[in-house]
Structure to design on (125 residues):
Protein backbone atom coordinates (compact mmCIF):
# COMPACT_ATOMS: atom_id res chain seq x y z
CA UNK A 1 0.00 0.00 0.00
CA UNK A 2 2.81 2.35 0.77
CA UNK A 3 4.29 2.09 -2.77
CA UNK A 4 1.08 3.08 -4.54
CA UNK A 5 0.96 6.24 -2.44
CA UNK A 6 4.55 7.13 -3.46
CA UNK A 7 3.77 6.62 -7.16
CA UNK A 8 0.69 8.75 -6.84
CA UNK A 9 2.66 11.54 -5.13
CA UNK A 10 5.38 11.40 -7.80
CA UNK A 11 2.93 11.63 -10.71
CA UNK A 12 1.11 14.50 -8.98
CA UNK A 13 4.43 16.40 -8.74
CA UNK A 14 5.51 15.66 -12.34
CA UNK A 15 2.25 16.75 -13.98
CA UNK A 16 2.52 20.43 -12.92
CA UNK A 17 6.21 20.42 -13.93
CA UNK A 18 5.39 19.18 -17.45
CA UNK A 19 2.54 21.68 -17.71
CA UNK A 20 4.89 24.49 -16.65
CA UNK A 21 7.50 23.48 -19.21
CA UNK A 22 4.81 23.36 -21.93
CA UNK A 23 3.55 26.84 -20.98
CA UNK A 24 7.11 28.22 -21.00
CA UNK A 25 7.81 26.65 -24.43
CA UNK A 26 4.60 28.14 -25.81
CA UNK A 27 5.52 31.56 -24.39
CA UNK A 28 8.99 31.46 -25.99
CA UNK A 29 7.51 30.31 -29.32
CA UNK A 30 4.97 33.14 -29.20
CA UNK A 31 7.66 35.67 -28.35
CA UNK A 32 9.81 34.44 -31.25
CA UNK A 33 6.84 34.59 -33.62
CA UNK A 34 5.97 38.15 -32.62
CA UNK A 35 9.57 39.32 -33.07
CA UNK A 36 9.87 37.55 -36.43
CA UNK A 37 6.63 39.17 -37.63
CA UNK A 38 7.78 42.62 -36.50
CA UNK A 39 11.11 42.16 -38.29
CA UNK A 40 9.24 41.04 -41.41
CA UNK A 41 6.99 44.11 -41.34
CA UNK A 42 9.94 46.48 -40.68
CA UNK A 43 12.01 45.34 -43.67
CA UNK A 44 12.36 47.87 -46.48
CA UNK A 45 9.93 47.44 -49.36
CA UNK A 46 11.35 45.75 -52.43
CA UNK A 47 10.70 47.14 -55.86
CA UNK A 48 8.77 44.77 -58.07
CA UNK A 49 9.89 46.58 -61.20
CA UNK A 50 12.97 45.29 -62.95
CA UNK A 51 15.71 47.86 -63.28
CA UNK A 52 16.58 46.99 -66.90
CA UNK A 53 14.86 45.13 -69.73
CA UNK A 54 15.64 41.41 -69.51
CA UNK A 55 13.85 40.09 -72.59
CA UNK A 56 15.06 39.16 -76.05
CA UNK A 57 15.20 41.57 -78.96
CA UNK A 58 12.68 41.95 -81.77
CA UNK A 59 13.91 41.96 -85.39
CA UNK A 60 13.00 45.65 -85.82
CA UNK A 61 13.08 47.75 -82.65
CA UNK A 62 9.82 49.38 -81.64
CA UNK A 63 9.33 52.38 -79.34
CA UNK A 64 7.98 50.03 -76.69
CA UNK A 65 11.08 47.83 -76.80
CA UNK A 66 13.36 50.88 -76.84
CA UNK A 67 11.59 52.27 -73.77
CA UNK A 68 11.96 48.93 -71.98
CA UNK A 69 15.67 48.75 -72.78
CA UNK A 70 16.28 52.25 -71.45
CA UNK A 71 13.95 51.79 -68.48
CA UNK A 72 11.72 54.76 -69.35
CA UNK A 73 8.16 55.30 -70.56
CA UNK A 74 7.37 55.81 -74.21
CA UNK A 75 6.27 59.40 -73.49
CA UNK A 76 9.48 60.38 -71.66
CA UNK A 77 11.04 63.74 -72.65
CA UNK A 78 14.31 63.79 -74.60
CA UNK A 79 16.40 64.95 -71.63
CA UNK A 80 15.30 61.99 -69.50
CA UNK A 81 15.95 59.62 -72.42
CA UNK A 82 19.52 60.92 -72.67
CA UNK A 83 20.02 60.45 -68.91
CA UNK A 84 18.64 56.92 -69.06
CA UNK A 85 20.82 56.11 -72.08
CA UNK A 86 23.91 57.30 -70.23
CA UNK A 87 23.03 55.29 -67.11
CA UNK A 88 22.41 52.06 -69.04
CA UNK A 89 25.42 52.59 -71.30
CA UNK A 90 27.78 53.12 -68.35
CA UNK A 91 26.66 49.74 -66.99
CA UNK A 92 27.09 47.97 -70.36
CA UNK A 93 29.88 49.83 -72.17
CA UNK A 94 32.29 47.57 -74.11
CA UNK A 95 35.32 49.38 -72.66
CA UNK A 96 34.13 48.40 -69.18
CA UNK A 97 33.62 44.73 -70.04
CA UNK A 98 30.17 45.07 -71.59
CA UNK A 99 28.97 43.58 -74.85
CA UNK A 100 29.30 45.37 -78.21
CA UNK A 101 25.94 43.88 -79.19
CA UNK A 102 24.19 45.28 -76.13
CA UNK A 103 25.87 48.65 -76.58
CA UNK A 104 24.60 48.83 -80.17
CA UNK A 105 21.08 47.89 -79.02
CA UNK A 106 21.19 50.56 -76.30
CA UNK A 107 22.30 53.16 -78.85
CA UNK A 108 19.57 51.98 -81.24
CA UNK A 109 17.01 52.30 -78.43
CA UNK A 110 18.10 55.89 -77.80
CA UNK A 111 17.84 56.67 -81.53
CA UNK A 112 14.35 55.14 -81.75
CA UNK A 113 13.16 57.04 -78.69
CA UNK A 114 14.59 60.32 -80.05
CA UNK A 115 13.17 59.47 -83.51
CA UNK A 116 16.56 59.47 -85.19
CA UNK A 117 15.92 56.10 -86.84
CA UNK A 118 17.16 56.30 -90.44
CA UNK A 119 15.41 53.38 -92.13
CA UNK A 120 15.82 49.71 -91.30
CA UNK A 121 17.42 48.46 -88.17
CA UNK A 122 20.04 50.84 -86.81
CA UNK A 123 21.91 47.96 -85.19
CA UNK A 124 25.26 46.83 -86.57
CA UNK A 125 24.32 43.25 -85.68
Amino acid sequence: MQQSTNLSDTSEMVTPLIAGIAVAAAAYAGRYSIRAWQAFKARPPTARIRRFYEGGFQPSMTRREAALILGVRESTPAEKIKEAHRRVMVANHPDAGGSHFLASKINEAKDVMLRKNKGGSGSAF
Remarks:
- The first helix runs from residue 2 to 42.
- The mean pLDDT is 81.
- The CA atoms of residues 8 and 14 lie 10 Å apart.
- Helices lie at 2-42, 63-70, 78-92, 100-113.
